[in-house]
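Operator note (shift B, R.M.): manual run for Phosphoglycerate kinase requested after the automated queue skipped it. Running by hand, logging everything below so the morning shift can see what happened. Input copied straight from the record, untouched. If output looks odd, do not overwrite the archive copy; leave it for review.
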Amino acid sequence: MGATTIIGGGDTATCAKKFDAVDKVTHVSTGGGASLELLEGKVLPGIQALSNLPGRKASYHVRPMRTCPLANKRVGIRLDLDVPVSRDEDGKLIVRDHRKLAGPALTIQKALRMAARSIVILGHRGNPEGQIDPELTLQPVAQALEELLKRPVTLLPDISGDETELQCMDPWPGSVFLLENLRFHPEEEGIENSRVQPKEDDTLITGTPSRVAVEEDGLVQEESGNEEEEAKQETKEENANALDEEDENKEVNETVYEPSFAEKVSAFRQALSRLVDVYIADDFSMIQQSHSSVVGVQAGVRACGPQVEKELEFFANHLQSPDRPLVAILGGNKIKEKFSLIPGLLDTVDEIIIGGALAFPFLAAMANMPIGDSLSDSSVTAQVSDLMEIAEIKGVTIHLPEDFVLGSSPDNEDTHSVANTEEGIPDGKMGLDIGERSRAKFIEIIADAKTVVWSGTMGVIEEEKLAGGTWDLLSALTHAKFKGSISVLAGDHIVAYANTLREDLEEIDMTHMTSVATMMLLAGETLPGLAVLEPGFKPVSKIISCHTV
Ligand SMILES: Nc1ncnc2c1ncn2[C@@H]1O[C@H](COP(=O)(O)OP(=O)(O)O)[C@@H](O)[C@H]1O
Ligand SMILES: O=C(OP(=O)(O)O)[C@H](O)COP(=O)(O)O
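Run finished. Output pasted below as returned.
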């Protein structure tokens, strides 16, 4: 049972050396005053100066909500509302699992206790790609939040409409508003070519007066067959042509100005900004995205909420100066996204385990292994050998799987065969999980690690028969945990899968579950959602992070 013991101060440190006590305590610091000041949460000027050197990691010291003057302010809070929803027996959409809303509800309550005048909640659900999808409405979330908060939550369907602005302008004290799914608007994620197509008769888009209107005026008629009539008709046609020409000129004059997509995004952001006086970022899973509601809300005060603060504090305390060896596990199917983290991780971690579909570009490039129909990415394959060279120079070992469970597609329940790197994967087959040999090798690495950070699954966890590799590594993590190592699960799928295993793996409770953003912080990435917040200190944190990596 290891208590953490720290000796601080030049003389005391010398004494500890003299009496051979250095190995018997956790840490001996020569700076006594400095250690105590760090413990109090102060930022030391010398360390601060180091952190400002070019090439240092981006700062993530941001102002927390608890230090903000919220009294009588309209507080906009970006929250994670992406919860599972299904229909009840009456066909009504309801939130199936309220657990994920507990954190958001607490943040809202805290802001209200700080005398906020009103709360405007910004969030999304699912991926409607800029289109209105009634299945993805936030209506069920509004209802679930009402139950948790025990106060009305008003869903505002038209985010940038006058009605919304009016409601939010001078709200009844204590009002809670929820903006409808932000992703119904292409301007939220910046999907310029969203599937939303202009309607054919949409004069705002085309600026073209409709031909039908001309016909309705009776100026275009069928031929009559009679000369007099024909003459009349000719005159009419001439008139019509003259009018058509006039129309065309009018068209040019009347063409309604169509704003560019960038202008639309800017207008969307301004509309959001008009609804709030203070902006609180409290959705850590979105903090790495440059979405409008993450980076584009202008407000007098911009700070992080308690959930984001907790994540940053965890990072500062456990991952800023981690116990080593520090092992990163990367997998899943977002091949490019996960690959792009590796160069940054090479400066931070000691070893990297690679599984999931991310392994295939590596195996294709390194072992020249046939990968059959496995998911891969040729642009990533082309970068692998350079990356491996840099890893070698930096002394980071990258471990690849040696065998696989194969199938014909991720959702096909066929009998699964196996293959190893020597045999390769035949055409028509995909590698869908890591095999037994790889699992044994990876488990050994995990057993020796002091800190493990994991993002992306080892296989297709949605199929029980293809989840074995992920399960085995999760079990290994829980065993390592008993020996005092820190384990961090970072990412939607791995966290959701681990949550389903709570009964089998009780110790999962001792594992920190977070978002891919933590892995990005570890890789030294700048997170856009943090960069837009006001700088600040972390006085609550026991160990202030020092940016000396
Ligand atoms: N070998 C594989 N082939 C195809 N899909 C895979 C493979 N391994 C994992 N996946 C898929 O990757 C997804 C999880 O990856 P990812 O989104 O990167 O993880 P996370 O959300 O945890 O960061 C799962 O849906 C899983 O089915
Ligand atoms: O990366 C994310 O979450 P994660 O870090 O928990 O995996 C984002 O929630 C991704 O969400 P999206 O796929 O709906 O854009």
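Quick read of the result: The chain has 22 helices and 19 strands. The chain has a mean pLDDT of 82.
Leaving this for review. - R.M.
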